[in-house]
Specification:
The chain contains 14 helices and 14 strands. It is of the alpha/beta class.
Length: about 375
């Protein structure tokens, strides 16, 4: 089956939930016999990057204007797909899904994955929110098949658009626990003596609330580590940087990947996800795959992961988060408990299962290409 993918910046090692999802999913689909071409945005991918782990990349022009790059790039990508005629065009996210009616009019079989109601993100203005809501409506109504990454989103799609969808959650690949601690040495960190958040530096991730809660918790000898790309021209990033500069216990590492990110996950004392908006949080699943203690805000997408009650705190309640941090700084987790946690998340959220279920959706969308 020939699959073309649209709606993401690119991969590997490109920050973003959709990008991480695609980075894990499509190499497995190649192993299952699919021919996969991913349409990537030129500004995020080097010119000489033609393929990776069997996935082919088609690097198309992207306008250098924030807020419209995805809109324009997806339009160009749909036209490109119409020329190449894949068996299935897989569109990720509700913004790019605004062009699904055009793809259908051009005779393409379209699968859309709804990764979350992006119009709820705090960064978007009224026009952007309108376009995202329009993309959600058109994508859900005109797609041949719809995938959602959580039951929360499935219920939303059913209620708002009266459409059925298939729940295929994000996954994890059970990692090897690294022995090296080079990255910890670089940032002057002590194993299991720091709180970790891995995310984009955007308002809905609530970094400022975490910094305040960490300060209130007053964990003796601990540091707070925030991993995510820093855009020094962005207003929110400036606020996070200013808050971090007021304390010598808050570390901004910038974007990390590969072994450096593995070290930071594996040696964290507590992983915290205080966000107000998620689809199904890959970073939280990744933290669980290392067997570390985790805390998360009590939004529906985080609750769906299925952590213990005491691992959730009320969204936006800085004092409650500070109390939770104090309660969870109890020291090393026994090896057996870590392995049980790793096995649990691997059984519940597995990329091989995600790929099998995604292929089944493709075959339903294009039944003559089984």
């Amino acid at each position: 089956m020939r699959v073309m993918v649209l709606g993401l910046r690119g991969f590997p090692a490109v920050q973003g939930g959709v990008e991480t999802h695609a980075e894990h999913l499509y190499p497995i689909l190649v192993q299952l016999g699919c021919e996969v071409d991913v349409i990537t945005r030129a500004t995020y991918m080097p010119k000489n990057m033609k393929a990776w782990q069997g996935v082919r990349f088609q690097r198309l022009w992207t306008p250098p204007w924030n807020g419209v790059e995805a809109f324009v790039h997806t339009f160009v990508g749909v036209l490109y797909a119409a020329v190449k005629r894949p068996d299935v065009l897989h569109v990720h996210a509700i913004g790019p899904a605004i062009w699904v009616p055009l793809a259908r009019a051009l005779g393409l079989k379209v699968v859309v994955t709804h990764h979350g109601p992006d119009y709820d993100r705090e960064k978007w203005g009224a026009i952007a929110k309108y376009l995202l809501k329009t993309g959600e409506r058109l994508g859900m109504q005109f797609a041949n098949e719809r995938i959602v990454i959580s039951n929360v989103i499935r219920n939303l799609v059913n209620k708002k658009h009266h459409c059925d969808s298939v729940v295929i959650p994000n996954g994890v690949s059970l990692p090897e626990i690294p022995d090296s601690k080079k990255t910890l040495q670089e940032f002057h960190l002590e194993s299991e003596k720091y709180v970790l958040l891995v995310s984009r530096l955007v308002p809905e991730k609530r970094h400022l609330e975490l910094i305040e809660a960490f300060s209130q918790a007053n964990l003796n000898g601990w540091k707070l580590v925030l991993v995510g790309a820093i855009d020094k021209s962005d207003a929110y990033c400036k606020r996070v940087m200013a808050a971090a500069e007021k304390s010598n216990t808050v570390i901004l590492t910038d974007f990390q990947t590969g072994n450096a990110l593995q070290e930071l996950y594996a040696n964290a004392g507590i992983f915290v996800l205080p966000s107000s908006h998620e689809g199904l949080p890959i970073a939280l699943l990744e933290a669980l795959s290392y067997g570390i203690s985790t805390l998360a805000s009590d939004i529906p997408a985080n609750l769906e992961v299925g952590l213990a009650t005491e691992q959730y705190f009320p969204l936006g309640d800085v004092s409650a988060l500070a109390d939770s941090l104090r309660n969870f700084q109890s020291g090393k987790i026994p090896r057996a408990k870590r392995e049980n946690l790793r096995n649990w998340v691997n059984e519940k959220y597995n990329w091989n299962d995600v790929a099998d279920k995604t292929l089944a959706v493709y075959q339903h969308a294009a039944p003559t290409k089984r």
